[in-house]
Amino acid sequence: MTTDVIIVGAGASGLLCAMEAGRRGRSVLVLDHSMEIGRKILVSGGGRCNFTNRSVSRDHYICGIPDFPVSALSRYTSEDFTALLDQHGIGYHEKEAGQLFCDDSSRRIVDMLKLECDRASVRFLLDCKILEVRRLDGVRGPRFSVAADLGSFESSSLVIATGGLSWPGLGATSFGQKLARGFGIRVTPLRPGLTPLKFSREDAEHYSQLSGISVPAAVSCGGTRFEGFILFTHRGLSGPAVLQLSSYWDGKSPIEVDLLPRIDVLSILSSKRGSRMHLHTLLGRLLPDRLAKLWCRLSCHSRPLNQCSARDLEEASHRLHHWEIRPGGTEGFNKAEVTRGGVDTRELSSRTMECNKVPGLYFTGEVTDVTGQLGGYNLHWAWASGHAAGEVA
Ligand SMILES: Cc1cc2nc3c(=O)[nH]c(=O)nc-3n(C[C@H](O)[C@H](O)[C@H](O)COP(=O)(O)OP(=O)(O)OC[C@H]3O[C@@H](n4cnc5c(N)ncnc54)[C@H](O)[C@@H]3O)c2cc1C
Predict the structure, then answer these.
(1) How far apart, in Å, do the first and last CA atoms of the chain sit?
(2) Is there an atom of ligand 1 within 6 Å of 11 CB?
């Protein structure tokens, strides 16, 4: 079968790309090894899909070339996506920090994209195992041949939208990254992002008793800081602020936790210096009791405040704002919402996502070395980069 465009991957990016290319009158074939399209969209945002954010900018992404995402993001904005939802009468609402979620199920978004693809005459082959991809030199320019268990296909454009490595249970594979390497295209190191951090073995002995406690805090490493809730689990730390930080963690350095951000702890402690109240009792008014007690036991000697010197209080306050924890690792790809690293953006056109070395070959979405923060930015990158390729492929 010969077609203008073959897209491998019927996830967020592949579907948006297929819709866009099909609307331009290109014949489009989408291949996916899963039985179902858009599986990650379906689980995203706890089933309600945080599909974009009202403020999307390059600052919300980690990428080898920080300006790389700008062109695609500026040509496909959050308003473009919400306009599509409006046309289909799909309700959505804003949660904190500009995050947009569906009013009901993420299924509405998958159905909308499928309908748009059907209108643009896009064909789908699901449950299709890809065996080999080759580049052929034809008289009218290069072509791609894709051999699969369901047949052999040829096209002038090939879009790889096979995503990252996270959540293998939903069909994630390293197909795209391996294919890139096979074509001599560089791939930056892959590691889990937006993932819980595990305690080291020694810390787990102490901190696992805090399991279930969630507090507003600020966490930082290597000059990057996030404020938000952190959650103690019996294996480590999770919660939005920790997930955000995990994408920036180098895998070995300690992270710093400010347990009482924006609170002048020293003034509060100093104001009670004449009191017989124990330090942990006072901290128990600012933090969950279990956390206050354990923190005092491990980080300073809790005694009545009238027995603490000014220096003792300064130290306690400093430690509360700069509690150092050295994680033992991350929870890995099984629990990561996203994959850090991917097809090196130096190999791609930022306008079209086409490979500089292999004309006609495109990489879009999470398979590229563009990683969004928590808050709808990863799906937005999938839409925007799929749109950029769909305009030209
Ligand atoms: C639990 C969870 C929750 C998330 N929540 C959010 C959220 O609320 N907001 C947000 O912005 N982001 C969220 N993300 C991240 C977001 O879902 C992804 O970044 C985004 O879906 C990536 O889109 P993609 O099209 O690049 O890849 P994917 O959506 O992963 O699509 C890749 C497609 O390629 C197919 N494929 C893979 N390998 C092969 C192969 N060898 N042969 C054929 N087909 C193949 C897969 O079956 C899949 O259909 C979440 C991720 C997870 C795991």
Answers:
(1) 18
(2) yes
Tell me the CATH number for domain 2-191+339-390.
Answer: 3.50.50.60
CA of 161 to the centre of ligand 1 (A): 9
Q: Pick the atom of ligand 1 nearest to 385's CA.
A: 26
Which residues belong to CATH 2.40.30.10 in the chain? Answer: 197-330
Does domain 197-330 fall under CATH 2.40.30.10? My reply is: yes
Please, where in the chain does CATH 3.50.50.60 lie?
A: 2-191+339-390
Integer Cα distance of 85 and 34 in angstroms: 25
Kindly give the distance from the C-alpha atom of residue 222 to the centroid of ligand 1, in angstroms, as a whole number: 28
Q: 161 CB less than 6 Å from ligand 1? A: yes
Q: What is the pLDDT along the chain (393 residues), one digit of tens a residue?
A: 899 999 999 999 999 999 999 999 999 999 999 999 999 999 998 899 999 999 999 999 999 999 999 999 999 999 999 999 999 999 999 998 899 999 999 999 999 999 999 999 999 999 999 999 999 987 777 799 999 999 999 999 999 999 999 999 888 999 999 999 999 999 999 999 999 999 998 888 889 899 999 999 999 999 999 999 999 999 999 999 999 999 999 999 999 999 999 999 999 989 988 889 998 899 999 999 999 999 988 887 778 888 888 998 999 999 999 999 999 999 999 999 999 999 999 999 999 999 999 999 999 999 999 999 999 999 999 999 999 999 999
Contact 259, 320 (CB under 8 A): yes
Beta-carbon contacts of 8 under 8 Å, excluding residues fewer than 6 positions away, are 14, 30, 31, 32, 130, 146, 158, 159, 160, 161, 162, 175, 176
At residue 172's C-alpha, the angle toward residues 20 and 239, to 5°, is 100
Distance 380 CA to ligand 1 centre (A): 12
Spatial distance between the Cα atoms of 368 and 348, rounded to a whole number of angstroms? 9
- Residue 376 CB: number of other CB atoms within 10 A? 27
